[in-house]
Specification:
Structural class: alpha/beta
CATH architecture: 3-Layer(aba) Sandwich
Shape: globular
Radius of gyration: 17 Å
Low-confidence stretches: 1-5, 9-24
Largest sheet: 8 strands, mixed
Strand content: 15-25%
Number of strands: 8
Helix content: 25-40%
Number of helices: 9
Number of domains: 1
CATH class: Alpha Beta
Length: 248
């Protein structure tokens, strides 16, 4: 992989049906675990000496998140602008959490206009996704959760595309979904892959549902002024910092 990241910083710099509560949201061993080559093709980290720099970077980010929040918290990952690599960071931060055999992770693609996670992970999300669940009161959460081939990591794809997610993310059903997932799967950490801060209110609305906010800036792409302006959209008490993503 050509991407690399810099650790979270305290402030911008240069440049949440009746199931048993203890059940894990992801199986310890997927039906078909992906090989290192397949993971590489999906721009997804894996334990390897060859990719140690990226793995260690995401492990460090995981450690920092676990130090600033408690329980199975919800993390919002959002890029400053398109192309900054927000989805890459969200996916691999979720994978880093799933490395821990005592934890699991659920990645929720909340970019309704330009969703990428199911395509990147090469999943055929034939049962629909987030939009389908929010629009259909009869759908269950299990019907829109997909195994990724990564142990203890599942994906809730965006589903049908929509021009804006504001009305979906501010809905009672969205909040109920997250609350239900948190109560049913107490060892699972939720990661919301949000659209860019600039251009739409979606990330700001989603931040109200999250416990922690991580901002992703394209190294050499997003200016200090743009990063500061994007960070100002979020509650300082939730704002964990900025990840600088390189090689987007």
């Amino acid at each position: 992989m050509s991407n690399s990241i810099r650790p979270l910083s305290d402030e911008p710099q240069g440049d949440h049906d009746g199931h048993v509560a203890s059940r894990s949201i992801a199986p310890r061993t997927p039906a078909t675990a992906l090989s290192p080559l397949q993971l590489e093709d999906r721009a997804t980290i894996y334990r390897s000496d060859a990719a140690r720099r990226e793995v260690d970077a995401f492990r460090e980010l995981r450690t920092q998140l676990l130090s600033v929040a408690e329980g199975n918290f919800i993390t919002l990952v959002t890029p400053v602008s398109p192309g900054s690599g927000g989805s890459f960071v969200a996916r691999n931060l979720a994978v880093a959490v799933a490395f821990d055999e005592t934890k699991s992770a659920l990645l929720i693609d909340c970019d309704l206009r330009q969703p990428t996670q199911d395509r990147t992970m090469k999943l055929a999300a034939e049962g629909g996704g987030l939009v389908d669940y929010l629009e259909d009161q009869e759908r269950t959460t299990e019907s829109v959760l997909y195994d990724t081939g990564v142990p203890r990591l599942r994906l809730l794809p965006a589903g049908r595309t929509r021009e804006t997610g504001a009305e979906y993310f501010s809905s009672f059903r969205m909040r109920l979904l997250l609350d239900s997932l948190r109560s049913r799967y107490p060892n699972c950490h939720l990661f919301l892959d949000a659209p860019p801060v600039r251009g739409a209110p979606d990330a700001r609305i989603l931040s109200e549902l999250a416990d922690v906010v991580v901002l992703v800036a394209g190294y050499g792409r997003d200016t200090p002024a743009a990063i500061a302006q994007a960070a100002a959209n979020f509650d300082p008490k939730k704002f964990a910092g900025v990840v600088f993503n390189e090689g987007v």
